[in-house]
Specification:
The complex is a heterodimer of chains A (about 475) and B (about 280). Chain A has about 475 residues and is of the alpha+beta class. In chain A, about 35% of the residues lie in helices and about 25% in strands. In chain A, the strands form three sheets. In chain A, strands 3, 4, 5, 6, 11, 12, 13, 14 and 15 form a nine-stranded mixed sheet that branches. In chain A, α2 (about 55-70) runs parallel beside α4, α10 (about 360-380) crosses α12 (about 390-400) and α15 (about 420-435) crosses α16. Residues about 1-5 and about 10-30 of chain A have low confidence and may be disordered. Chain B is α/β, with parallel strands linked by helices and about 280 residues long. Chain B is built from seven helices and eleven strands. In chain B, the strands form two sheets. Chain B has a nine-stranded mixed sheet with strand order 9-8-7-10-6-1-4-5-11, sandwiched between helices. A two-stranded antiparallel ribbon of chain B has the order 2-3. The mean pLDDT of chain B is about 90. The chains are: A alpha+beta (about 475), B alpha/beta (about 280). Chains A and B meet through β7 of A and α5 of B. Bound molecules: flavin-adenine dinucleotide.
Chain lengths: ~475, ~280
């Protein structure tokens, strides 16, 4: 919010109100959902104060907050254990946020390395130009970010909710939201005698949320709004990791790659260091994967063979491989965030921030989960579970800067996926850098002529460049 | 009808990884499940016991093994109990059977004990027989079918080469079933919640009236045997002197040729020479 004027932030808040949750049945794009067949819970179904669906970071945070307030909380997870269905390695930038919930959480949680080095690399097929940021200030508590392995981390986090009194049930797939009149009053689990009642249902079931759609809060997505991430965990000796990545001890790095690694497909790549493994992967826009008929794992192989990546991953043994969808279009995909008796949080609410140098979902999942938990607690204090009462969830999200972040970066996804940004500019940067550094006996030229020359050769008009610069500024700068 | 089912917790084969150099298991990555033959035994027990019957699930294992007992409770077992002692050696069918027998001999004995014929991890298949021996009950292994008539069990058992054997056994008895003869039912939500909430009682040596010394079986020794490496086989390459179509046929059949014989005629010493030459050519002598 720091860069917004008062008027601008007011306008923003109004927009938030308009777009989410004020009119029943409307979505950000205004397309009303067809009314689905609604069932009511069978008599005798067990009652909980709060049922949280999905034990990812959003669900565990919501369950933890609600259970600490003394509510009877049920946390439902379809996997054999929390995290068993989650794509493995990740960089978690929400340390300060989680610290609010569990002080000094890193002392007890299964973390891999604290991230003190972040690299943004622009790539062409043979070249890479990188911005390398490193600070010891991220090496001090509460740290800025950690590399984590999701199956371990998610399990630990869910255990914290259980320790606070939440009841965790694994191997329970929710199939349906249950209604009485216009109020959500429970869920149906895919098992015999599967009906459960709750005053508040919090949907934290991840990207492309089945529950939000089932409740008519979310529209169907377009292929250009979703990306597919494929990820690998490569086992590598701890000493080799320290040497290859110039690390001291338990510090680590995160590299974000833009450019040729995904070839003509819009997307990017990433690499994070764990204690004795690397997490790496590529993300490709689903529509452009389909258009170019590329398979995601082919891109991952191309990525691993790139001359600036290959020496980093050499000798690594594949331990895990997985794929998952990511909601990418940010602001334009936000569902209606609540209705009577129900809230939506985390990836289920498309609160995943993907824009070039940012790939942040876990921190927003935890923040929105906490906000949903708080809203449920407040609703219980007043014994009012209507949509009006649960609307305070939006206030909490705003207070936690979640909605404002998504609003202020609303132009970023379109820009990041544009072909010029995806391929042309990395090429230009690389070609320019090559001219700057190449020594071949010719005259040493200054930077501006090199830049103009590079642009001319790439056959791109300076007008476009200015347009893109404006777009980039609007998306990331102000 | 009172039935006891013995369940073992084993590594999920999907999570077993062996280091190619040291042949050591990567135990950090293991996840555990109930041994498949044991879950089949549990399903058979639930079917035989019916709605009024009493099925108790038993497991010898550390606290983490509670998971298999919860699985049994969720599916409908009446009660569950874990038996455990830190003195248990790693591979210990005799000790495991002793703990189970000690528990089964306390209180009201069941009419029938069901277990899997062999576990999916170590699979020595000794437990059913040892357990029956301690209980002094009859035992049938490799069971594929059970029907009860009063205190008589009609049992079908698998023999080699697809043969079956039918037997009658007087109860109480130990019956060890094959994996795959029954598939464990899908637990209801109510069952699952009940199982999650249940406290699983544990009995240690004291409670079973045993002492650590009882677990010493001097006769039991385990010897590790590493089989010799199998001889490497050369990869087949077709004979380059043959015409193309023959080489292709050789490749397609992967060099497998029909058995052919050659009848030699002539004086014995000449024939012997041909045989020796034949053997030498093929590297036998
Ligand atoms: C390849 C890739 C890399 C990523 N890298 C990063 C990164 O480095 N840093 C970062 O911050 N974010 C990253 N993200 C995004 C991040 O993974 C998500 O934003 C985050 O996991 C969202 O958390 P969540 O709790 O909302 O959903 P999830 O973590 O998806 O959890 C949802 C849970 O709900 C369960 N569930 C789903 N449906 C049902 C149902 N019907 N019934 C019961 N349970 C159900 C699922 O099993 C799952 O456990 C990445 C994503 C991908 C795909």
């Amino acid at each position: 919010m720091a860069f917004l004027s008062k008027e601008a932030s007011l306008a923003l808040v109004q927009r938030v109100h308009r777009l989410i949750g004020i009119k029943n049945g409307s979505t950000p794009h205004g397309a009303p959902q067809p009314r689905r067949q609604r069932s009511a819970p069978r008599p005798g179904a067990e009652h909980f104060d709060v049922i949280v669906v999905g034990a990812g970071p959003a669900g565990s945070a919501a369950a933890l907050v609600a259970a600490r307030a003394g509510l009877k909380v049920l946390l439902l997870e379809r996997g054999e254990y929390p995290g068993s269905k989650n794509v493995s390695g990740a960089a978690f930038y929400g340390s300060a946020i989680l610290n609010e919930l569990i002080p000094n959480w890193w002392e007890q949680a299964p973390v891999e390395r604290y991230l003190t080095r972040r690299v943004l690399a622009f790539m062409t097929a043979e070249t890479s130009v990188a911005i390398d940021f490193r600070t010891t200030r991220f090496a001090e508590p509460p740290y800025n970010g950690f590399s984590i392995l999701r199956p371990k981390f998610d399990r630990w986090f869910a255990d914290q909710a259980v320790a606070a009194g939440a009841f965790l049930l694994n191997a329970a797939v929710v199939d349906e939201v249950l209604w009485e009149d216009d109020q959500v009053v429970g869920v149906r689990v895919r098992r015999d005698e599967g009906d459960l009642r709750a005053d508040v249902v919090i949907a934290c079931d991840g990207a492309n949320s089945f529950l939000a759609k089932n409740a008519g809060l979310q529209r169907e997505f377009h292929a250009h709004e979703m990306s597919l991430g494929v990820k690998e965990v490569l086992e590598l000796d701890e000493g080799a990791i320290r040497e290859r990545f110039h690390l001291h001890d338990n510090d680590g790095l995160a590299i974000e790659y833009i450019g040729a690694i995904t070839e003509e497909v819009s997307g990017g790549g990433f690499l994070y260091t764990n204690r004795d493994s690397l997490s790496l992967g590529v993300i490709g826009q689903i529509s452009s994967l389909a258009e170019h008929r590329r398979r995601p794992y082919e891109l991952l192989e191309t990525f691993k063979r790139h001359p600036s990546v290959a020496p980093l991953v050499r000798g690594g043994r594949v331990r895990e491989y997985s794929a998952h969808v990511i909601p990418e279009a940010g602001w334009n995909m936000l569902p209606k965030l609540y209705t009577g008796g129900m809230l939506v949080a985390g990836d289920a609410a498309a609160l995943c921030f993907v824009a070039g140098l940012y790939l942040e979902g876990i921190n927003y999942a935890i923040q929105s989960g906490m906000a949903a938990g708080e809203a449920a607690v407040a609703a219980h204090q007043e014994r009012d579970f209507s949509a009006r009462s649960l609307a305070r969830y939006v206030e909490r999200l705003r207070a936690r800067h979640v909605l404002t972040d998504f609003a202020s970066y609303r132009h970023a996804p379109g820009l990041v996926n544009s072909p010029r940004l995806q391929n042309l500019y990395p090429e230009l940067i690389a070609a320019g850098a090559e001219q700057v550094f190449r020594v071949n006996g010719g005259p040493k030229r200054k930077l501006l002529p090199i830049a103009l020359d590079t642009l001319r050769r790439a056959n791109i008009s300076p007008v476009h460049v200015l347009q893109d610069a404006w777009q980039a500024g609007r998306s990331f700068g102000w | 009808m009172r039935i006891a089912v013995c369940l073992k917790q084993v590594p999920d084969p999907a999570t077993v990884e062996v280091d190619p150099l040291t042949a050591a298991l990567d135990t950090r990555r293991l996840l555990y499940i109930a041994s498949p033959a044991d879950t089949a035994a549990l399903e058979v027990a639930l079917q035989l016991a019916g709605a009024e019957g009493h099925v108790s699930a038993l497991c010898v294992g550390p606290p983490a093994a509670d998971a298999v007992l919860r699985l049994a409770l969720a599916a409908g077992a009446t009660e569950a109990r874990r038996l455990w002692t830190p003195f248990l050696p790693l591979q210990a069918p005799a000790q495991t059977a002793l703990l189970l027998a000690a528990w089964l001999q306390r209180g009201e004995a069941p009419d029938l004990v069901l277990c899997g014929t062999r576990s999916s991890d170590q699979g020595s298949g000794q437990l059913p027989a040892l357990l029956a021996e301690f209980l002094e009950w009859p035992v049938v292994c490799d069971v594929t079918q059970i029907t009860l008539e009063g205190d008589l069990a009609r049992v079908q058992r698998r023999l080699d080469r697809g043969a079956r054997e039918e037997l009658e056994v007087r109860l109480p008895a130990v019956l060890a079933v094959e994996a795959g003869i029954a598939r464990l039912r899908h637990a209801s939500l109510t069952g699952l919640m009940r199982a999650e909430r249940a406290a699983i009682p544990v009995s240690e040596l004291d409670d079973l009236g045993l002492e650590p010394a009882d677990l010493a079986f001097p006769a039991a020794t385990t010897r590790m045997v590493t089989p010799p490496r199998p001889r490497t086989r050369p990869i087949f390459t077709p004979d380059s002197t043959r015409p193309a179509h023959e080489r292709i046929t050789q490749i397609i059949t992967a060099g497998v040729t029909r058995k052919s014989g050659k009848v030699l005629e002539g004086p014995p010493d000449q024939m012997a020479e041909v045989v020796v030459e034949f053997l030498r050519e093929r590297g036998f002598v």
